[in-house]
Amino acid sequence: MNNVQHNLNHIRQVIDTTAQQCGRDPKTITLVAVSKTKPVTMIEQALHAGQVHFGENYVQEGVEKVIHFQSQDLVQRPVWHFIGPLQSNKTKLVAEHFDWIHTIDRLKIAQRLDAQRPQHKSPLNTLIQINISDEESKSGIEPKAMLDLAAEIVKLPHLKLRGLMAIPAAEKDADKQFAIFQEMHSLFLYLQQHYPDIDTLSMGMSDDMTSAIKAGSTMVRIGSAIFGERLKQA
Ligand SMILES: *Cc1c(COP(=O)(O)O)cnc(C)c1O
Fold this sequence. Notes:
By secondary structure, this protein is of the alpha/beta class. Helix content is 41%, strand content 17%. The longest helix is centred in the C-terminal third of the chain and has 21 residues, at 174-194.
């Protein structure tokens, strides 16, 4: 067994155990393997280990990987999540190649993706990114702006609003970290009251996935714990 497969098995075990500890069904938690900066050979290893969902941060790099795997004869087609910041001049590539976008924080970007989504594809699964730690430098909208943006996104026929995403600031104190994830979960439940279809709360990375799952995450985005540390800061 190679490292990627070994790490994937371990992460799946952590998800199962954590979910069981808090009385959740592990099947309600989707694992997105974040393959940014990592070669297609590693993605192949993950695919062979049954991994389906992959996350990429950089448009050009991500699109190259999507296209690479389109030409392969695979039992299970990978599902591609765009999880990086998105500028308006790159929306077309995301609309054409990805299955999910996690980082919507402006209506303008959502409208462009809607207009550019190819007709033959199913609607682009969309998450609103919330700036939950209120940091000036990070992307995401303030919680109080969430409902207005959601109301506009649900009008767009080629997007499907699925829920929320957050990248909380790194926090050493586990209780504080958990409290922030709980805040996100409350926002998620609040949005669900307005839009009962939404089903996805994307939060939790290599260092904080167990807190995120305990607080109600339905989608964890795991990079370094599967593929190893990244060289460039990303
Ligand atoms: C890089 C990245 C991840 C994965 O981070 P790890 O700490 O390597 O697990 C998850 N989400 C986003 C948005 C990222 O940019």
